[in-house]
Amino acid sequence: MSQVQKNSIWTVIGASSAGTLIEWYDFYIFGSLATIIASRFFPPGDEVVNLLLTLATFATGFIVRPFGALVFGRIGDLVGRKYTFLVTLLIMGVSTTLIGLLPDYSQIGVFAPILLLLLRLLQGLALGGEYGGAATYVAEHAPDGKRGFYTSFIQTTATLGLFVSLGVILACRTFFGEEAFAEIGWRVPFLLSIVLVAISVVIRRKLHESPVFLEMKASGKASKSPLRDSFLEPENRRLVIIALLGATAGQGVVWYTGQFYALYYLQTVLKVNFVIANQVIAIALLLATPFFIVFGGLSDKIGRKKIMMTGCLVAALSWIPIYKQMAQYSGFLDGTQPQMGMLVFLVWIQVIFVTMVYGPIAAFLVELFPTHIRYTSMSLPYHIGNGVFGGMVPLIGTWMVSKTGDIYSGLYYPIAVALMTFVIGMFFLKENNGLKK
Q1: Are 125 and 379 in contact (CB under 8 A)?
Q2: Which of 66, 174, 219, 329 could disulfide-link to 342, CB 3.0 to 4.6 Å?
Q3: Integer Cα distance of 249 and 240 in angstroms
Q4: Largest CA distance in the chain
Q5: Distance (Å, rounded) from C-alpha 179 to C-alpha 198?
Q6: First vs last Cα of the chain: how many Å apart?
């Protein structure tokens, strides 16, 4: 690869990753502040019920992501990758900023949770269109044999977005103090979004369209109906189903268990202090993030399937022992102070599982589908796997614990899904890491 090409691919990765990181940051501020949002946007009463209502609102953003994948995936395959992920970035930024300006329940009553839900739906639609575009765009610039390595930088953005959201929240809480942060300071992380989005839009506008997409358009091979070609053509429909059940569903639950459910478990089940719980997650995320690139690069050499399936299996077998250790070292079982170092280590292990399943998956999905329907075809299984199967983990887990009283029962759902993906993936997934563009 020439020096010009090297500069080009790193510019593409930098601009694409920056925008995608900001979208993930916007999406996850909501979840990171769920306990505060529960008290601000729902009527006073049962704290557990309000938290469940907040998590249900949070989950709607995940559930609507597949619809965003269909809408913006179609536009991306018809019009282009660059234009589409500029639009999604703007929708996400405006929606997030408006949440920061939204009056709470004490000011406008029932309209507060209704408007919150509508803005959350817009966030989900935007993210549904963003990821597929960014991953496809980077993959279509990457050279053959290096696709796993280069797309793994896009894969770091989801975890880094969560890390940045936690960092901004902790900084604001420290600056405002606990009471002022709960009253007004929580709005600042949402309002900051408009500045970050403006910077990212300026950077992304300087990018050129994907060369693979331009070549396809010039040759007259573009799809006139990406939705029909993606889901009505039998062979491609089969690939979408296999990608969902044999890859992204398990990847989704591993991601959300190891990062988001771990945070809720520390805060709401083990009653670890808000600041300590967020610090534990943030440090673990930062220490584990380089492994997305490690496993993405390794997948170019030994294949995507081996790494992803191993991650699903090891996670499913390890979660209950890990969460029992988290209960012990949190002080929940004996009333002692949390041992922060051990908690960081236990969450870090879970995020390593995340890097195994998530690091190679962008390259895997891009290689699975042909160029003319790639944006549409890869976006749908990705966002159903992550948005529905994965996004429901915090809600189902918290509900299971509240219903059964068993603090480990919230893990049964992600364990079942991860094992399902391992079995289906082992039998039906094929390695495509040697595929040429």
Answers
A1: no
A2: 329
A3: 12
A4: 69
A5: 31
A6: 15
Q: How many CB atoms lie within 10 A of CB 423?
A: 15
Residue 409 contacts residue 314 (beta carbons within 8 Å): no
The whole-model pTM stands at 0.81
Q: Could you tell me the domains of the chain?
A: 3-428 (1.20.1250.20)
3-class SS at 391? coil
Scanning the structure block, which residue is given the tokens 């029992």?
Answer: 324
Buried b (16+ CB within 10 A) or exposed e, 162-198: bbbbbbbbbebbeebeeeebbeebbbbbbebbeebbe
Q: Tally helices (H) and strands (E) across the chain.
A: 24, 0
| Local confidence pLDDT in tens for the 437 residues of the chain | 444 444 488 888 887 787 778 777 876 787 778 778 888 888 887 677 777 777 777 777 777 878 887 787 777 777 766 677 778 888 888 888 999 999 988 899 888 888 988 888 888 888 777 777 777 778 877 888 888 999 999 889 878 888 888 889 889 989 999 889 989 999 999 998 888 888 877 877 776 766 666 666 666 655 566 667 667 778 888 888 999 999 999 999 999 899 889 988 998 889 998 889 989 998 999 999 999 999 999 999 999 999 999 999 999 999 999 999 999 999 998 889 999 999 999 999 999 999 999 999 988 988 887 777 777 777 788 888 887 898 888 888 888 988 999 999 999 999 999 999 999 999 998 887 656 55
pLDDT for 212: 63
Query: Sign of the C-alpha dihedral, residues 422, 428, 434, 435?
Result: negative
Tell me the CB-side half-sphere exposure of residue 410, using CA atoms within 13 A: 28
The residue to which tokens 């601000």 are assigned: 40
CA 212 to the chain's CA centroid: 26
Distances (CA, A) of 103 to 111, 121, 413: 9, 18, 35
CA distance 366 to 377: 9
Structure-token match 């994948």, residue found: 69
Q: Are the C-beta atoms of residues 28 and 165 closer than 8 Å to each other?
A: yes
Burial, 355: exposed, middle or buried (Cβ in 10 Å; 0-12, 13-18, 19+)? buried
**Burial environment of residue 206 by CB neighbours within 10 A (0 to 12, 13 to 18, 19 or more):** exposed
Q: To the nearest 10°, report the CA torsion of 270, 276, 277, 281.
A: -140
